[in-house]
Amino acid sequence: MARSAWAAGSDHRPSNPRRAGRALIRAIIFDLDNTLTDFMKMKAEAVNAAIDGMIDAGLRLPRESVRARIDAIYKEQGMEYQQVFDTLLESELGHIDPKILASGIVAYRKARGSNLKPYPHVQMTLLELAKRGIKLAVVSDAPRAQAWLRLCDLSLQHVFDVVVTHDDTGQYKPSPAPFREALRQLHVAVDEALMVGDWPERDMVGAKSLGIKTVFARYGDTFGTQDSGADFEITDALELVAVVDRMNAAVTGAAGRS
After folding, report:
1. Which end of the chain is more exposed for a tag (fewer CB within 10 A), N or C?
2. Of the candidates 95, 115, 135, which is a domain's last residue?
């Protein structure tokens, strides 16, 4: 993938001094959902809008029971399941009413578009990292089409050098495969990268299995995590810039004193 337009004119590769096993950070890998954007909030708002749309179109079921049934379908099929409303109508009505289905889908899409936004300071953070010549990647468990749709909705489709989805490796995090693929495409070593994510059991564990340093995005935590197991924690996306600057300053300073 071509370099980000934000990084135009900064595509030179910086020298990468090492000392005591440390290297300059040259790339950062981000999880997508609940790291770059509040996916769970978007999902909840979009589903609520879809339920209202279907009820307005003639679905004669209690709102609470419809929501419970949708939650059960997502739990069984996964949050990326694209036929959730079809399955709902088949199970509850015994058939698919096209007017009700279409009303739900349109309401969902409108709400998704209005609620899918980057977390505060995400765009500024990506800009600052790109200015420093840092390569940027996404590793997501989402299917390729859904990951790219979300990136386009966020206007981030041109920002990342590499995007690795479940379709690219056939493996879900914490398997090391998607992280390894991101490193391969970024052309960096494990000690030249950071992984930023909100899910310790997937993002932190998977990256650490290869020796990648990790940053826990506590601002996106939906599990009430006490111990993330990460090397660093941030409560605002912009704090990541300071983490990278400190790490790289320590390496260049050590190299200058050697």
Report:
1. C
2. 115
State the maximum Cα–Cα separation within the chain, in Å, rounded to a whole number. Answer: 75
Tell me the two tokens of residue 130: 């790109």
Distance CA 167, CA 178 (A): 10
Closest of 238, 168, 221, 179 to residue 27, by C-alpha: 179
> CA 132, 135, 136 angle in degrees (round to 5)?
115
Considering the domain architecture, whether residues 104 and 194 belong to the same structural domain is answered as: no
The pTM of this model reads 0.86
d(CA 76, CA 74): 5
How is residue 55 written in tokens? 């009820």
Shared domain check, 231 and 167: yes
Handedness of CA 77, 60, 52, 56 (dihedral sign): positive
How far, in whole angstroms, is CA 121 from its chain's centroid? 15
Q: What does the pLDDT read at residue 20?
A: 43
Instruction: Please check whether residues 168 and 143 belong to one and the same domain.
Output: yes
Tell me if 233 sits within 8 A of 254, measured CB to CB: no
Query: How many domains does the chain contain in total?
Result: 2
**Cα separation of 240 and 113, whole Å?**
27
Around 187, how many Cα atoms within 13 Å sit in the side-chain half-sphere? 4
> Which residue, of 86, 115, 144, is where some domain finishes?
115
Identity of the amino acid at 253? G
Which residues span the domain enclosing 105? 40-115
CA distance 198 to 181: 20
